[in-house]
Amino acid sequence: MTRTKKTGMKARGGRVAVIGAMGLASVALAAAPAFAKGGVDITAPSTGQVGKTITVKAHGGDDSAGYLHQLCLEENGFGEGWHQENCSAVVKGDAQVTANGTSARRGDLRFRAVLYGLTSKNDHKPVRLHASDVVTVHVR
Above 50 in pLDDT, residue 32? Predict the structure, then answer.
């Protein structure tokens, strides 16, 4: 009988320690600041041909409260600097956009996608939330 009592006490002590550690961890997590999560993904072919269609797709989202989202594709090619090619509609959740175009000459075209946060559909000062990595299409 003595043996059973000791094992029972050890088991209870272990449970109390685990419960205490879980309670401490939950308090630490509650005290930590919350960060909005999100990101943007972009896909494009690595090579293209002059005069043929090049399709670039992007998908992005963010869980920041209070914002509508709009995703825009930007292009930089042939020394022109970055400019917008196409933008998605303003949506509440994740945004998607596709751009189809052709290149009239050889060279490298660079694309990126930028996710903007808007307070309304007619917001004239959107907030830049995330940008994708730059992808390069080698036009031959």
Answer: no
- Name the phi and psi angles at 15, rounded to 5: -65, -40
pTM over 0.90: no
The DSSP line for the chain is -HHHHHHHHHHHHHHHHHHHHHHHHHHHHHHSPP---EEEEEE--SEE-TTSEEEEEEEEEE--TT-EEEEEEEEEETT---EEEEEPPPBSS-EEEEEEEE-SS-EEEEEEEEEEEESSTT-SSPEEEEEPPPEEEEE-
- Pick the closest to residue 109 from 61, 70, 53 (CA basis): 53
